[in-house]
Amino acid sequence: MDGLPPPLEGVTVVAVEQAVAAPFATRQLADLGARVIKVERIDGGDFARGYDTAAAGLASHFVWCNRGKESIALDLKDPRGLDVVRRLIADADVFVQNLAQGAAARLGLDAATLCAAHPRLIAVDVSGYGSGGPYADKRAYDMLVQCEAGLVSVTGTPGQPVKAGIPAADIAAGMYAFSGVLAALVRRGTTGRGGPVEVSMLEALAEWMGHPLHHTIHGGTPPERTGLAHAVIAPYDAYPTADGGRVLLSVQNDREWRRLAEHVLGRSGLGTDPEFATNAARVRHRERTDALVGEALGALGTDEALALLEAAGIACARLRDLRELNGHPQLAARERWREVGSPAGPLRALLPPITLPGGSEARMGDVPALGEHTEALLRAAGMTDEEIAALRRDGVAA
Questions:
Q1: Tens-place pLDDT, residues 157-216
Q2: Looking at residue 175, what DSSP letter applies?
Q3: CA distances for 204 relative to 15, 75, 146, 173, 179, angstroms
């Protein structure tokens, strides 16, 4: 089994993409060995390049979502720029786009048009709300979709709904676009035909809302916002420790509660007390339950509390910030960190979470500069020196 090639080696992807959803999807494809050609605007490229300068002068979103790709900068409003994209697509296996609603169709780059012309092509349309319906033309940024999908309504404290701290709608759409491409490649392997793939941010995030959605539509009441606590399980929250840390613990059943009461709280009688013996009773008396747990853990240091909980067989975690994640001992022990090249030099990055033992490691290529591969890709598309010079002179390519 050793030495298996990357699973997507030999697959070519062309992407007219921006922001997060589509770039995150195609980065997964690149990590698995696909060649990803990223088509960018000549005036600044993917606008995610300008979100911040936190990654050694580069934008953190862009660094995260675009390693391992080749960048070509073209003006698609010019027929010559559009012709280059069509030439690239003619030799591609997959095309992905997340332009504003209607823009791809005006350019002839929508999935239906491309798949009619190229029967083996898999063409992916990633949108905010889908191709039809009253919201089809509505602007769809991540936080807006989080609101429309109800995520914000279940996140936060009783008095304050909040958005997720990551672009959850973008990530959801990106991962369904990624898995949609993989499914379509499998189907093409058996039928010889590609076909369109459609993913919307709203529908992707609505799927992720499954638990609170089913709780509401079948149970009649939406789950309450409970901060770090669980809406229907107690104790399940983060508690301060004596040295300023916070420890999150989760009691999933009444047997665990009895162990917690005896070995951590030092009050074995709470295990059979009718006011605490069942999860329903503990949720009903949540404030008193949390006070008992908080008092016990508040007298311990973070490491001591975690060791005691582990010894009692209670699920627990240290509440870490991002600097602590950077130094997480589990990621270090499993050697998950690598360096990728970029225009700003080497940057630290995590291996993708899909591990394929027996094969080659994920292909974590460099983060491209805008138009870094324009020249090579134009030549590969059959352009002569004179044609390339004319495109550059006229601002069609950069």
A1: 999 999 999 999 999 999 999 999 999 999 999 999 999 999 999 999 999 999 899 989
A2: H
A3: 20, 31, 11, 5, 12
Say how many C-beta atoms besides its own lie within 10 A of residue 54's C-beta.
11
H or E element that contains 194: none
**Which uninterrupted H or E stretch holds 99?**
none
**Size (the chain), residues:** 398
Q: Strand locations in 34-107, DSSP E?
A: 35-40, 69-73, 94-97
Residue type, 109: L
pLDDT tens digits for range 12-28: 999 999 999 999 999 99
Q: What are phi and psi of 284, to 5 degrees?
A: -65, -35
CA angle, 132 then 137 then 142, to 5°: 105
CA angle, corner 240, sides to 239 and 246, nearest 5? Answer: 80
Residue 67 parent element (H or E): none
Is the confidence at residue 2, as pLDDT, over 80? no
Please check whether residue 378 is in contact with residue 391, taking contact to mean a CB–CB distance below 8 angstroms.
yes
pLDDT at residue 1, as a whole number: 41
Burial class from Cβ neighbours inside 10 Å (0-12, 13-18, 19+) for residue 369 reads middle
pLDDT tens digit sequence for 28-58:
999 999 999 999 999 999 999 999 999 999 9
